[in-house]
Description:
Elements lengths: L9 E9 L2 E10 L2 H10 L4 E5 L3 H7 L4 H4 L10 H19 L1 H6 L4
Antiparallel strand pairs: 1-2, 1-3
Amino acid sequence: MELTRDEFPVALQAFEVRSDREDFIAEQVVNSQAEADNFMSLYAGRLIKTRDLRPVETKRFEGRRASAIAAPRRRAGISPWLIFLLILIVLVIIGFATGWIQTMIGEAK
């Protein structure tokens, strides 16, 4: 599906056709033909419809890039609690391996 430049932004909707009904799957607001092509490739084999944005929705997306519209992603990284837990486990293993924990408890001979 080719869209002209003056049609953007537009909302693309994907539907699964089952016998006599259409089940809604997904919707995405696209600002370029590349985004539209990406959406259509994700939902290949499904019915794709376009709908015009309402004036309220248009104001929301004006002047924004696609990356600014996307939902914020979680920061990739290790939690400080996970690091603390790993250090604690390593110290316990070292304590048992050297016998320090046993002597502190009073079980070593």
